[in-house]
Amino acid sequence: MTRAGTGADRIAELAGGLRTAVNRLAHALRAPASAHGVTPTRLTALAILEKHGPMRPSALAARMRITPASMSRLTDVLTEGGWVVRESDPADRRAFLLRLSENGAATLADLRLENATQLVADITALNAADRAALQAALPVLTALADRHLDDQHLDDGTNPAVGPAEVD
Length: 168
Known about the structure:
Layout: H1 3-35, H2 40-52, H3 57-64, H4 68-80, E1 84-89, E2 92-100, H5 102-124, H6 128-152
Antiparallel strand pairs: 1-2
């Protein structure tokens, strides 16, 4: 095997290991949300609304890469759960906007606090060398995530490799 092939193999192995580790950590961090009835798809919608403000369901569906039918079901679930409210679109009174409710904002804050608390405990349990390695890797991981999110026009942290989200 050539030296370049060996390097490419190492990079491919690193990429596979990183994908696996990130997916496993993401799954573990989603567990508290699921326990509160906030599925990954619901969490994505709430995070987008928090970041970008009120928007039409069609715009939210486009950002999430889901169908209008799935968005309709998701809108119903989010409003019934009290996480979002519908309000008239001032630009077109026939249309409506989805806005994160106070309950939705509080739910996101609670979930983030719960996740942060767990991560603090996990990171505290690491030895100093592992904490330093994690600290050193953080800017690189952030840059990789930002590049992928920019490439996919997603602002919500979902994994674009999984494909369009399904309403759950």
